[in-house]
Every structure is written in structure tokens, then in C-alpha cells.
Design brief:
Elements (H helix, E strand, L loop, with lengths): L6 E2 L18 E5 L6 H13 L4 E6 L4 E6 L5 E4 L3 E3 L8 E3 L5
Parallel strand pairs: 2-3
Antiparallel strand pairs: 1-2, 3-4, 4-5, 6-7
Length: 101
């Protein structure tokens, strides 16, 4: 990945590791800025899935949508959701997007 993004790593994945360079986050959140082109961000999400990412959220304020990427599943597009959950990976977590749209 080219720069730091909000991410989540399950604690059991890091037990006994000597370097954090050996692991990839379980969950990654990408927020498209006004300057970002959508296609490179989508390609980055796919590369992240190929590297071991379990769940990726691509939040796109310009198109008022969230693309949800999960390993082994087709991309899901949510139109103007008020909140996004990640399911079993982070039970009880909900990212509020009310002020985003």
C-alpha cells in the first residue's frame, strides 16, 4: 500500500510476530477524495484482497456510495447508506456515514 489508511488487524494474527511487515490488515477503509480517480482506488482494493484483505470499504462521497469488497465474493455497492457494518469480522461495529452525504 502506498500510504497509511484506517485498518483493522485481528489480535490473534499478531501474536508471536516479530515484525508487523509480515501481516496485512483484515479490514481496510478507503475514502475517495475530490482529487482521487475511482478506477485506481478500485484496483487498489482488488490488490489488497489478493494480498489477504478480508473486508474493504471504498467510501465515495462524490457518487454517494460505498463499495464493499470481501474475499471470494462479488463487490457490493451501497447507495447513500446511513451506516456500514462489517459483520462477523467486527461484531457490533457500525461506521456512521450520515454526515458524509
Amino acid at each position: 500500500m502506498s500510504s497509511t489508511r484506517p485498518c483493522w488487524i485481528i489480535s490473534s494474527a499478531i501474536v508471536g510476530l516479530e515484525s508487523f511487515r509480515l501481516i496485512f490488515p483484515d479490514c481496510l477503509i478507503e475514502l475517495r477524495s475530490r482529487r482521487d480517480r475511482l478506477k485506481p482506488l478500485q484496483e487498489k482494493m482488488q490488490e489488497s484482497l489478493d494480498s489477504g484483505l478480508q473486508v474493504g470499504l471504498l467510501i465515495d462521497p462524490q457518487d454517494q456510495q460505498v463499495e464493499v469488497y470481501r474475499g471470494g465474493e462479488p463487490k457490493q455497492v451501497l447507495r447513500s447508506p446511513q451506516a456500514v457494518t462489517i459483520g462477523d469480522l467486527m461484531p457490533g461495529f457500525a461506521l456512521s456515514l450520515r454526515s458524509t452525504w
